Amino acid sequence: MRPPLRAVAMLAAIAALVTACSSSDDWSQPRPTPSAVGTLGPGFVTPSTKPAPEATITPQPGSWAGIHPPKDYRVVLLTAGDDTPTKSLVTAVKAWADDEHVDLRTIAVGNAHDAVPSIAKAMEMGPDLIVSAGNDLVDPLALVTPSHLDEKFLVVGAELAEPTHNVTAVDWDGASFRGEGLGASSTYDPASFTGERCAAAIRAGVAAVLSDLTGIVVWL
Questions:
Q1: pLDDT (tens digit per residue) in 159-181
Q2: Alpha carbon distance 108, 81 (integer Å)
Q3: Are 123 and 130 in contact (CB under 8 A)?
């Protein structure tokens, strides 16, 4: 006995909806390397040549405003710590992801022993970019990133002492943590992690990554 046409149509609609939801949430499917939408403005890099590895650039404020990630850009946010600076960074990253229609997934690291496994988990998810927020992640990232040069990392509010070409950082006077061996900068100031500064950090950092300006420090 053939089912009623209405039932067939309903089943087809449900199947289509399930398929659509699955495909949008599934990062396991291969796809081309995502391309930036727009271009950097004047003053982001001076001179207008690619900076040397581990160089520090100081872009003009707002020179990153004209470049955006493509829709559904896949980002994993790694976060560690419940201090005010880390919370401010996390808030800024989530707001940016919402504004830019980024497909954001978050991994909160419970303690120092979970950091390396959490970084490995983030890589296994297949993101376009892994963003790190929290000083406790600096040393584990320094350990892991040199062995995974095909993965792109962005550290906001801190930096690695000797970053490889796949690690970009955004820092400023008042941040600058570079690992336990070096400690915090003498000018470290939690109050410098304002909402405006953190919002600029994620946007400027992603702009650098999308423009293939990686392995450097973007100084705000």
A1: 999 999 999 999 999 997 888 76
A2: 8
A3: yes
